Amino acid sequence: MIHHERIQKLNDLPLQKGRFVLYWMQASQRAEYNHALEYAVRQANEQKLPVLVLFVLTDRFPEANLRHYTFMLEGLQEVRVRLEERDILFLAVKGSPSKEVLRVAREASLVVADRGYLRVQGGWHEEVAEKASCPVIQVESDVIVPVEAACPKEAYSAAVLRPKINSQLRKYLVPLAKTPVKRTLGRLDFPALDLKKSIPGILSSFSIDRSLKPVSRFRGGASEAKRLLADFISHKLKDYGELRSDPSLDCVSHMSPYLHFGQISPLYIAMQVQEAGKIPSKTREAYLEELIVRRELAMNFTQYNPTYDSFRAIPDWAKRTLKGHQKDKREYVYSQDELEKGRTHDPYWNAAQKEMIVTGKMHNYMRMYWGKKILEWCASPEEAFRIAVYFAWCFGKHDRPWGERKIFGQVRYMNDAGLRRKFKIDDYVKKIASLEEGPVTRLARSALPFPDQKG
Description:
Blueprint: E1 7-9, E2 20-25, H1 35-47, E3 51-57, H2 66-85, E4 89-94, H3 97-105, E5 108-114, H4 119-131, E6 136-139, H5 147-150, H6 158-166, H7 169-172, H8 199-203, H9 222-235, H10 237-243, H11 256-260, H12 266-275, H13 281-304, H14 316-324, H15 336-340, H16 347-359, H17 364-376, H18 381-391, H19 416-422, H20 425-433
């Protein structure tokens, strides 16, 4: 089922006579449980036209590097195969997304786009909608509850968004069936990338940051995502509520990279978790809280707060309290380079940094500790925020004021004593120390930038 709340017209043009319906795939990089794809197929069937799926690879995506492109292309190679099995032509091209889409859209009756939540993606959509000669319709497929349906304004905490989302879950947690394809587009005379080539061969002409090598622990693609999810549900989900926060263990699903690149649907994950047998309801709810409420809080934030990546996005109370403690003496102050290379006095922080560099992701609990220490170890809140945005962030957003303390003011504090008290944290350090570390010249957002369950 495709709810009308997922569908948004980006312009008011009438259908034009065309050779195909164009699905511009960008955020939802998968061939199943993809509302935008199924909507495009249904529209094409109604118009008695084939569907063309187009993906545009730009080598100018902010902060992206070889690690990101490799993981993404591993997924896109699988997308090509899965679409081919449905008799849907898939083209991947190199260039500016808006310009390439407009070129192909000249022969389309309609353009269907999936939805991204960053400023750069919104800019592409605006340009295509403004310049296209046919309708452009956006279909949201990477959240359970559509952003505007969940809340019409910025939610300042999970406590605000949670009841709004939970009250609508029954409506939106429904399966999405594949729509039979009635017409097929054979070939199209349009220069495209050969996804059958090796990934290094595909990327040979791309001007991208190659300082950070691809990870070996995670391979991109829906099949790998589903394999990891099935393993998690079979062997780890039963203990998730109790053990998920322990960095020395591995009681996590590893879905975040796949969610980030749209290689697996959050709806599919949620339904698989709901259908798992012999799992306590509280444990199931704990996972769904992270997958849905906490993850979709981030989408709400970027949708409604245009300054989401600047210090201005921090709550007023946090800015005031951090400013009030700006002159507090820091026991340790580290440069960005020292932080990037994990050269601090803190073995737990260094281990978390190494985990991100080597594996491309970081345990969720350690991500919180890691972010708090950036604030503690920089000369000013503004400098800490700049570095944190470069890496990630952890500055009181979606939180409440806590007890007053040095440097942090009322922003929530974490320390290494808490790690030692709660977990066998030295086991985590040993585990990370055993990981093989490849050459790194600069981090440049090496992690796939979301913690584990929040995607």
